């Protein structure tokens, strides 16, 4: 009968000294496991503190542990990290609005943070990249590719540059801001497309001249004749008798190719589309968010010191108290403005009012409503502020009543008025 001796793991003197201090029933292995769990807990805690101060957790497993532990322990989402001091916000961007806490109050526990936009290049650097003919030619070649990606050799051939090194240098100045590089080649970014669009619009390359055109529709303010002018890429409509006028930018490409007789209609449609974009909340200059305000005209525009001979002080006093709409852009600071009836021409109530009477508002001339008409636009009261705009078809009328934020608070319909 043979005996078998099982080997035991050797224990060093350090381990023996530790065991001497352990309580009865506690093994060295149990102590080591306890230290492992304590260390992991401290790691999670210190990582969480770092995340709250703007640091990032690169280990996806640890990030998951932190998110789950925080939500299960406290019942609400982990706070979003505070922005790093090195983060540079765009100087044109508006300050973020206070966060809506209603989601927390209703029990939502999503951990999505507010969007943040930072400037990645200075305007001087961006426009300096377009200061060379070769770079502009690269953008034009990619534009002519109609969205296709061009390999390096095909793009260089389209631009007509033999020196590969020189071409690569200029192309490198565009990559990132105006051109994106893929495995298949190069294509335009959104900024590159917009630069080409501006070139096609003629804003930087065309100059237009147009003899003044008399409009068919009279001035809604004083019923006198009006004339349309076009110069410096701007349409201007002026009344022969009063100070009422309209002015808005129109790129040369909008009017190019149209007969003289159709210019007022084309310019009017462009003006209508501009109004619609602004009333949808986008600046006509920079596409930033706009905030509307309605008030008496004299709060926005100062009366001229000298009046034309055929304009009375009484008449000026009357129009200075008409409702006036101004939009303030939070991005670029522009203040486009207009009158109530032009602003609300695409409002559903106005569209249906005309449609029920066989009229498509798209066929209406913007010049019939783009003017300050005391008979159709008025201030109803000052506190709280209320103003009205009235549309009339035959003997029927529709009136929209708005507050000082351009919100419609009442709609009045009058048949056979």
What's the layout of helices and strands?
Blueprint: H1 13-21, H2 28-52, H3 60-74, H4 102-105, H5 123-128, H6 133-144, H7 152-159, H8 164-174, E1 179-182, E2 185-188, H9 190-201, E3 210-214, E4 226-231, E5 234-239, E6 245-249, H10 252-255, H11 263-279, E7 290-296, H12 313-320, E8 323-329, E9 337-338, H13 340-343, H14 348-355, E10 377-381, E11 386-393, E12 396-402, E13 408-414
Protein described:
This protein has 417 residues and is of the alpha+beta class. Among the domains are: 123-201, Arc Repressor Mutant, subunit A; 210-414, no CATH class. The chain contains 14 helices and 13 strands. It has helices spanning 13-21, 28-52, 60-74, 102-105, 123-128, 133-144, 152-159, 164-174, 190-201, 252-255, 263-279, 313-320, 340-343, 348-355, and strands at residues 179-182, 185-188, 210-214, 226-231, 234-239, 245-249, 290-296, 323-329, 337-338, 377-381, 386-393, 396-402, 408-414. The strands form four sheets. The chain has a four-stranded antiparallel sheet with strand order 3-4-5-6, covered by helices on one side. Helix 6 crosses helix 7 (152-159).
What labels describe this entry?
417 residues; 13 strands; 14 helices; alpha+beta; 4-stranded antiparallel beta sheet
Low-confidence stretches: 1-8, 65-109
Helical fraction: 25-40%
Percentage of β-strand residues:
15-25%
DSSP strand tally: 13
Main sheet strand line-up: 3-4-5-6
- What does the main sheet amount to? 4 strands, antiparallel
Q: Mind telling me the C-alpha Rg?
A: 34 Å
How many helices? 14
Mean of pLDDT:
77
The succession of helices and strands, N to C, reads: HHHHHHHHEEHEEEEHHEHEEHHEEEE
SS content category: alpha+beta
